[in-house]
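== Sequence and structure of one protein ==
=== Format: two labelled lines per protein ===
==== Data for this protein ====
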Amino acid sequence: MHRMFVAALAGVSLVAAPAAAQKTATISAKDKAQGAQYHPQFLAQYGGAMTGPQAAYVERVGKRVAVQSGLSNAQGDFTVTLVDSPVENAFAIPGGYVYVTRQLLALMNSEAELASVLGHEIGHVAARHSNKRNSRSTLASILAAGVGAVTGSDALGQIAGYGSQLYTLGYSRSQEYEADGLGIRYMTTAGYDPYAAASMLTALDSGTKLQARIAGRADQQVPGWASTHPNSADRVARARTLAGKQTRAVRASGEDSAFLRMLDGLPYDDSPQQGVVEGRVFSHPMLKLRFTAPAGFTLANATDAVTISGSNGQARFEGGPATADLPAYVTQRFTALAGNNAGNRQLHGEIRRTRINGLDAAYATGRASSNGKAVDVTIVAYRFPAATYQFTVVTPSGAGLGALAPLVESMTPLSDAQAAQIRTRRIRIVPVRAGDTIDSLSARMAYADYRRERFMTLNALGAGDTLRPGRLVKLVVTD
């Protein structure tokens, strides 16, 4: 999120009094306590807080917009964090906590667009939408328990509940519209161009569609801000109408070069330290391994595990301590999954040893129940020099590994040379020079596919647009 009115950042005292003459609940002691409790958990889930000039920039803009909400007149009551996540997302929780991922920051092209997203998220808090979702969250928690309720397995519950998590985060259309209206009001009073909210929604829609195409799911939404904040053409039109009704609106013109230059050097996509997802392939240069999800399955990379999801099963990849006794490791993992329900009963069938791409491996299958339906749970463990890595696979009853067998068989160690080829991608801001075209600049994008589409989406370019010399554009390059 990103764009505009950089000079005004230095003078908070010049900003008008808070816009929210509407009835808005203030930040209560209870809200502060809850926010403080959940803040570390959100940071852990989203890769931790970033530091440096880009994080400071986001914090300044966020606090400037937040004080317009009526929740508090003191900027110090808000904690605005840029998080180190490759997922396009933004969210806020009661207690004055607001978050933006670096991936979403990279998509934007002005400070005003950043202000629009921050204002929208603060609007959800000011309208207490999270409180109105309590019943939905409870339902989602029950659904997410699924397998875990029977086996005592938190890990399996997380696998089964991946879709439920997105449901929990979702807002109703009326809540989205209300947050849009509040956010546009806040950003306008803070001195930003309210029409940036519509351009922001348009860019997010383009980004979401491109991600779906790259993942081979063009007819589906992908996890991220757009999936938890439903988008539509009428919502964009409504945002433009709301912008036109702002009596203090200031229309911006031209590019926000200061904002774009601030983005230079920002990490983009997955960090090699956390592993890298390329389509259906996951590679980790530090762990020196690679595996591929079967067609029809998608990968979601988190700080502690990788989730593989599809209609015919789900799997979770994670690591454990090194061991020479893989069968004992498999048994221990089943016992841990069963938890208090383990007892003295047999939790799995015969443990089999095998070799997969030069790696010692062992696996076994047990039975469990998910949402009242019988499922197979298979644990596959691989021996690496410094650790043991495993897949926990959940498939329909009687399927065994089923459609996820190719995933298990794809586990491959990486050589030092292969690991060294996986490098950090970063945003670089470059001026368009005479003779540059969309095609020539797209060719410099650090990808093997969709270079032109990625370049156009990142720079908010339309099909008929051309580039003028001197314009600043974003490229994604490797270190």
About this structure: Residues 1-23, 133-169 have pLDDT under 50 and may be disordered. The two ends are 23 Å apart (CA to CA). The first strand starts at residue 79 and ends at 83. Residues 88 and 104 are 4 Å apart (CA to CA).
